[in-house]
Design goal:
- This protein is an alpha/beta fold and 353 residues long.
- It has a single domain, classed as Thiamin diphosphate (ThDP)-binding fold, Pyr/PP domains (Rossmann fold, 3-Layer(aba) Sandwich).
- 42% of the residues lie in helices and 9% in strands.
- It contains 12 helices and 7 strands.
- The chain has a 5-stranded parallel sheet with strand order 1-2-3-7-6, sandwiched between helices. A two-stranded antiparallel ribbon has the order 4-5.
- It is globular.
- The termini are far apart.
Length: 353
Amino acid sequence: MGEQGEQPAAGAGAEAGLARFLTLEDRVELLRLMVTTRAIEERGLSLYKQGKVSGSFYDGRGQEATAVGATFALGPDDPVCPLIRDLGAHLVKGTPPAAILAHYLGRAGGVGRGRDGNVHLGDATRGVVGMVSMLPDMMVVAVGMAWAFKLRGEQRCALSLFGDGATSVGDWHEAMNLAGLWQVPAIFVLEQNGYAYSTPSSRQFVVDPLERAKVYGIAAASVDGNDAEAVFEVTRQARERALAGGGPTLIAAQTMRMHGHGAHDDASYVPPELFAQWAARDPLERQRERLRALGVDVAAIDAEVRAQVDLATDEALAMAEPPPARPLEDVFCEGEPRVVGRGAAPWSGFAGT
């Protein structure tokens, strides 16, 4: 568990499968996506401290490999249900940095066109379900979509991400029960960082979620959540199994939330030595080390991403505020959205609409 600083499992067959299913270009892209995730969230936190982002601000520093690696394993028509620490899922699906930053700022050119705040965002045209922050509620949505795919005979699966606290809520158990009963093509990724807000997992449950999954008739696997390639491989296997009719899988990604629950939380309840242990296992640095060994200029990747985020920030700040007279536009779905994935058309912004 994250609170104990234990070494997580790597996932059966993960290393053997990586060389087969990930090209060097893929491995570079995994690093680029994680670096972009961190850079955007650092900029978002800075804007929040400047008073330009309403509410609080929630980031996933230290957990970037989980959302990026898992979503990278999906097909273009597979939807993902991310939560507040899963910005990488949006990036994998093609949401541009400028659109995300504009959303933080509540601008008309943001993902939500200024009609939703902070980290609540989603783009149905890219297969990213707009999130709510009520713990496992998005998991229930994923089960519903997966059931629809099964009824229609579609070769698609749905992925949902959530944290430790979600596993103590009734919706989690209901979703697990129905997923196991119907054997739907769903993948549940638990970002097992050892805390539900400030409550350590040891004071939250006795039976580990992996064991509970088996009771519901759901396959379960543990993976090093700070290893993007290992997360990719265990998710790829779960997807392959789901599409073959093998039902859902719960993946427990062992990771650590390196900041507090939100910008308002100093995380004083976390032992300093625990932060030190996990800082030494930073997911970005792990991927950098792999790529350095392969002769990749990782410093150039870092510099390129930082420059892109700087430009995206300037673009977002220059966008207009949403028109006050049109608050209900784009709030309700009209018709059925076309779900696409990483191949979506380039985003051109919504300013002025």
